[in-house]
Structures are given as C-alpha cells and as structure tokens.
Amino acid sequence: MKILVAVKRVIDYNVQIRVKEDGSGIVTDNVKMSTNPPDDNAIEEAVKIKESGKATEVVAVSVGDEKAQETVRKALAVGADRGILVKTEGIIEPLAVSKVLQKVVEKEKPDLVFMGKQAIDDDCNQTGQMLAALLNWPQATFASKIEVKDKLLLVTREVDEGLETIEVNVPAIVTCDLRLNEPRYASLPNIMKAKKKPIEQINASDLEVDTKPRIEQIKVEEPPKRKAGIKVASVEELVQKLKNEAKVI
Amino acid sequence: MSVLLIAEHNNKEVKPFTLNAISAASQINEDVHVLVLGSNSDSVAKSISEVPNVKKVIHINNPIYENYLAENYTSVIIKLAENYSHIICSANTFGKNLMPRVAALLDVSQVSDITKVISEDTFLRPIYAGNAFATVKSNDKIKCVTIRPTSFDPAPSSGGSAEIQNSDPADATTLSKFVKKEEIKSDRPELGTARVVVSGGRGMQSGENFKLITAVADKLNAAIGASRAAVDAGYITNDHQVGQTGKVVVPDLYIAVGISGAIQHLAGMKESKVIVAINKDGEAPIFSVADYGLEADLFEALPKFLEELNKLNTIQK
After folding, report:
1. For strand B274-279 and strand B292-295, is the pairing parallel, antiparallel, or unpaired?
2. Domain check: are B159 and B203 in the same one?
C-alpha cells in the first residue's frame, strides 16, 4: 500500500498575524512559516501505518511556491520516503489544489491520500473532500482514528454530536483531525538523512490544470476590536457586575 | 434563480442550525428551496414547510439517506443544482463534510463559513482563526456557500405552508458505509445555541474536576465547553471543544475557566456578548478579550461563584 500525504506551508500557528495596511491581504514577509498543524498528523499517521507493515511507501506532496519545499523536507525528516513539490504562483484556491493533486494521484497511483482537515490560514476545509469528488473516491473527513483492514478503512470521525464511525473502500481520502495522533519531532540524524531524500519538482503549469482563482478577494480587514474589559477583585464583585451591569444572569 | 438549502436533521427533527442557514439563504434570494434527504423523515419535511422563509421543500425519502454520507448526498444534489444560483448549508461538521464534494463536481470554488451576506455574490468570511476578515466575490455561475450558523439569527419556524415536492433518490454509493454514531446525549442546552456557556481548560487539571464546571453550568442552565488542551488531555469529549477547529459559539455569557486563551480558542468564542475569564495567571491572553477578568485560583473561585449564584433570588434562564 502506498500513501500520499498532502502538506501545506502556512504561517506558524503561534504567530499573531497582521493585516496589510492596503487591505490586500496578510503580511507574510519575515513571518515564521510552518507545516499546517493537522498536516503533521496526516504525515504521522501515514508513517505509523508504514511502520506497522501495512504500507510500503509514504510520499509527501505540497502545492505552493518554491519555499514549500521546506515543508516537504520536514515531512521527509519525520519518515516520508520521498517528496513532490508542485510549484505555483500567487493565490491558489482549494479547488485548484485538488485538481493539481488529482493529477499527482493519477501519476503516483496511491491507495490512500491523507491530509489535514483544514488549513489554518484560509480556514476553508475543502481540499480533501474536493479531491475525493474529482477522483470519485470515498472521503473520511475529520478522522480521529484510522484502522486499516485490508481493502477497507474503518475511520472514526469527530462530528458535532460526538463520534461517528464509517467504513470506506480503498482507495480513499482521509482528512485528519488534530487528535488522530501525536506527531513526532524530527531527530537531528533524520533531518540530515532527509536532505538526501529526493524531491521531484513539477510546475503546475505543465499539468494542464486551470489554477486561476475564481474568487475575487476584494479586501481583508482586521476584526472589530473588543472594548477593553476590567479586572474584578472578588467573586462577589463578579456576580454583582454580571447581575446588575451586564445583566446576563 | 432560487437558492437550494440542504437541511440538517436526524430524520425526526430539524437541527436548529438549519434555521440559521435558512435565514442566511433568504438574505441572498427570497426564493429559498430546502432539500430534505432522509429516511422516514416526513416530520422533518413538514416542519421545514412551516418555516415562512421557505418557498418549497424537496423531500427525498429513502433508507440510503438515513445517515449523512457525503457520497450519497452529493449525487442527488448535483442533479438538482442546475436549477439554482446558490447551494447553501451550515459550516458545521455536516456542511463542511458535504459542500466541497458538491462544489468540486460542479467545478465551483466554494466560499466557506461566511458571517455576512453583502450581496448575492459577495460575502464576508473570517480567515486566520478570525484574526482577519476577507470580503470575497464569487464569480462562479453556481455559488456553493457554507454559512457560520451563529452569525445569522434563526428563521422563525412556524406560520408558513410551503409546498412539499417528493422526489426520487440517486443511486446508493458503494464507496462508503455508515457504521455507528456515538452521540453524547445531554439534557443541557446545545453548545452552539446555548445562552450561557461555561468552559474549562487545561487549568482544570482533570476530568474529575470538571464537576466544578458542571455545577455552575447546572445553576446557569448553561452548555459546557472546553479548550482543545482539555479535550486532548482527555478531561472531556470532543463535542465540547470550542475554537478554530471545534465549535464557534456566540452566547450572551461565556465563562472561561482555567483557559489561557490561545488564538485558536479565541477564534471560537470572542464574539460572545459578555466574556468572563477566571485564571490564576494574570498575564493569560484570555484577559485581553474578557469583559470581566478574575485573577484567582479556580478551585477556590468556582465553589465561591456557585455559592454567590445560590444567593441570588432569580437567575435568567
């Protein structure tokens, strides 16, 4: 079994982002970038399945600019066997990413494709489901547990009401929740080894995929600021304020 | 052209957020049609037909729609899509799972999780965990949009009498199969719609200690929330998680206890009307969004808080 894992390079989750003054987007220059957190869970799960003997190869793919190579390299450092970077320029929407990934899947013929359930930059939560649609594969989204059973996967999904379990045929797409596993850190020797693992570079323009944005981003603004609150000195004061000032209890 | 809204329900009752989605849909276009895919779901179709904002209900009643399998839902939505300018559903786990599959097959770039309808093609949506808001215009012929339910008031649920049109199912999928759902039943208000939410974080130190939260929540008729740290640590189940990748809540009163206030948690609660933070770390970021901050040990403050609440003659429900 071969597992393809899609990883995205995003602004690090600890960074307090800033909106550009002209409202054209978010400041990304000189900002710390990292792998989209649930994509780390996706890689970890694929590597664990390989370590259990149920998969033979883990391939990491990223769609983005030249620097997304770092994200692929990080996946290699935690256990992916080789990498693919599909180079694009400018904004690329989930629909376009899924079309690019469709081409990669057609070439690589993986049995499973894993990725994070949502990217923490655009918060779209679309790519996995879209790729599943384009390939006419089943989708198991928001996975917090995956059991590989021959040509089936048993997937526990985190849904609003609790947990749901579904069975999907292989090949399948799984989008991973943060609680799926605990991603490992790359050890120094493995970081060194990862430098020797191959990363194939492809230009999205060579894939005959229309990646032009369909959605016009008119402006980006900061959210309205909350007016500063106060500190209360005691529980009594808190209850009194909630009752008489805020009038919420 | 009309708007097609996909109803979320449990085959008996309409899920409350469907009403919020209906009100968003009718801001886009008044001709709102609602698709009810279900099994033995006549009562759902009937109650949606009574929503005044709904002009028509399309009901497809078949055992294959007993559970939400995106593969099954999608094939039937695709068949109907060409008659509509917009396809809408809630941006909760139901809609997040379903809509992109529909959008991709229609070759549409979806607009996720909108908080405001600016015009029929232009919407406001949060990005970066709500630390920025983007105004976006969709140029696709059909627009696939998921709406953030808590940003729209629920539509009134009675007084209407829309036509119910019964329609045929599409072929059942062989790709996936529903196995089971472990639903946590509770007599409490639902987290997404509760007037008051009391949430606990890593500071609770154990699942056992959540009984302090429960006691206060009981008194205030509140839902119980949690930070991701508390869920990850196993103190409480995932359906309580509030935040960027959990639920977004906008209660009248949000009480954050032992929650430091990571960006990802704030994303799920900072639109609440009144926010209270109880934390022993005076520098915790949660205080920056709190209307009332109490710097205190929660293990002393919570019992005391309950005691003070018990002294009140009346408590709003």
Report:
1. parallel
2. no
Q: Work out how many domains chain B is built from and give that number.
A: 2
Question: Based on the domain organization, do B104 and B207 belong to the same domain?
Answer: no
- Tell if the CB–CB gap between A166 and B253 is shorter than 8 Å: no
Size of interface A-B (CB pairs under 8 A): 262
B305–A223 CB contact, under 8 Å: no
Encoded tokens for B129: 């965990």
- CATH for B150: 3.40.50.620
pLDDT in tens, A172-208: 999 999 999 999 999 999 999 999 999 999 999 999 9
Residue of B75, B101, B118, B198 best to disrupt the A interface, most CBs of A under 10 A: B101
d(CA B248, CA A189): 42
CATH class, range A2-222: alpha beta
- Structural domain boundaries enclosing B20: 2-166
* Stated pTM of the model: 0.95
CB atoms A94 and B136 under 8 Å: no
Q: Strand pairing of B116-117 and B122-127? A: antiparallel
State the greatest distance between any 2 C-alpha atoms of chain A, in Å, as a whole number. 68
For the segment B216-267, what is each residue's pLDDT rounded down to a tens digit? 999 999 999 999 999 999 999 999 999 998 899 999 999 999 999 999 999 9
- Among B74, B78, B96, pick the best mutation site for testing chain A contact (most A Cβ within 10 A): B96
